[in-house]
Amino acid sequence: MAQNSAIEWTEATWNPLTGCTKVSPGCRNCYAERMAIRLRAMGHPHYSRGFKLTLHEDALDVPLSWKKPQMIFVNSMSDLFHEEVPLWFIQRVFDTMRQAHWHTFQVLTKRSERLRDLSANLDWPSNVWMGVTIESQEYAFRADHLRETGALVKFLSLEPLLGPIKDLSLAGIDWVIVGGESGPGARPLSPKWVKDIRDLCQQHGVPFFFKQWGGVRKAKAGRILDGRTWDERPTLRRSAALL
Q1: Nearest-CA neighbor of 133 among 161, 105, 174, 91?
Q2: 162 near 185, Cβ under 8 Å?
Q3: Sign (positive or negative) of CA dihedral 30, 35, 40, 46
Q4: Least buried of 25, 30, 41, 151, by fewest C-beta within 10 Å?
């Protein structure tokens, strides 16, 4: 349940749980759902239930055997803070991340309220970066919930960005990722939406990462913005300053 990743802002993925349910418009064309259905058809044992939420206790210790330090995206095929994931399981995931201190773990959720509510029950290791997805102005409140957590490094994933976000506070935020939707039924991304976020990040000194323009043919659309790629990440010095 761990593998190298083609996701531009990470190096590997680790999926101790799979499957999810839709909670907001950004979920409509979920890539993980399409992939889970494909993997079930291929006979992958961890996807025998397709995209129904499934815990995989046999995958909980995988990063401990992964000796080369890497950036690891946790649950690219699910949401750790899904309402049906018990607290004990979330705590076990955190235990593994704490033990595997040579890795950096990136956790991302749309369920920011549950993240906030459970934060006090979690022992936040310094190698865990916690993020929330915000696809439009309507969901900017997720950043407020993130700010209330004990995570030492906090980031925002504005992907798929479905509209302009004109009122977004970057207080306490260490990284912003922006990307367009890709695959069948991909909704359009306005360059102005992206540039407005980029400019806001520059104004506040927050690292900005532009993942993709997206679309049905995302490789052709590429990820060039104003003549260059934008691959900024939190620096070790910036992260350490928060400890």
Answers
A1: 161
A2: no
A3: negative
A4: 41
